[in-house]
Amino acid sequence: MTSQDISFVLMLISSVSLLVIVGLIIFIGIVVVRLLGLFSEVNSASQAMRLDVNKLLHKTASLSNAERQAFSRIDTDFPDP
């Protein structure tokens, strides 16, 4: 092999390596963006559930004593399976 052939092979190897590195960087970037989107969705769902639980707790606190007894009686009438 001549030196020109060796330099051509080295250039080919370096360009393929560069393409692989760029591809990996793009792939990692896509994965990170998708994970951030997933975490964002989970965070919004968590905030919505927290808001619903707070509303239910507020409504429960305003129940009268008779209403609380009615709910506790319903719980005992239907045992868990």
Structure description:
There is one protein chain. With 81 residues, the protein is mainly α. It has one domain (3-77). It has helices spanning 3-61, 65-77. The termini are far apart. The model has no long low-confidence stretch (mean pLDDT 86).
Helix/strand layout:
Elements (H helix, E strand, L loop, with lengths): L2 H59 L3 H13 L4
State the domain count. Answer: 1
Give the overall form.
rod-shaped
Backbone CA Rg = 31 Å
Strands, count: 0
Note the run of SSEs as H and E: HH
Portion in beta strands: under 5%
Secondary-structure-derived class:
mainly alpha
Major sheet details: none
Helix fraction bin? over 70%
Q: Spans with pLDDT under 50 lasting ≥5 residues?
A: none
Distance between the termini: 80 Å
Mean pLDDT equals 86
Alpha plus pi helix count: 2
